[in-house]
Amino acid sequence: MRPAKSFLAFAGAGAAGFLIEAVILTGLTLAAGWNAVHARAVSFPLAATVTWLLNRRFAFAGRGVTRLRTEYAGYLAIQIAGACVNLAIFVICITAFPRLAAWPFVPLAAGAAFALVFNFVLARTILYSRALGTRARAPDVP
Q1: Which of 19, 38, 71, 95 keeps 20 to 30 A from 46, CA to CA?
Q2: How many domains does the chain contain in total?
């Protein structure tokens, strides 16, 4: 798939993940009274798993590694790096604009935009870098 189409599919998967995370994050903060940062510890892994499933099916179809656990571990490592970027932007927004803590989806969106580009570049150049059929079999993650 061409980079532009792959990015659009990646962004679509990211949008689905964002919606899932936003609903969980907002529900935990507004309805359950959780701290926004603690709520992200729940919302992030759920959203990351959904985006992996969507991205391996659409954005990077046929370009994954042979073993799902290996690909998933690599994808999660990239997502965690992207989450650091996302979380930094999220915390900066809440710190700079304390009223945003009451509407956590706003700083979540700002962080997601930065992390989207970061994650796509890493996923395309590291995890899904080789064309279909040329990727060597990766060792399984224990």
Answers
A1: 95
A2: 1
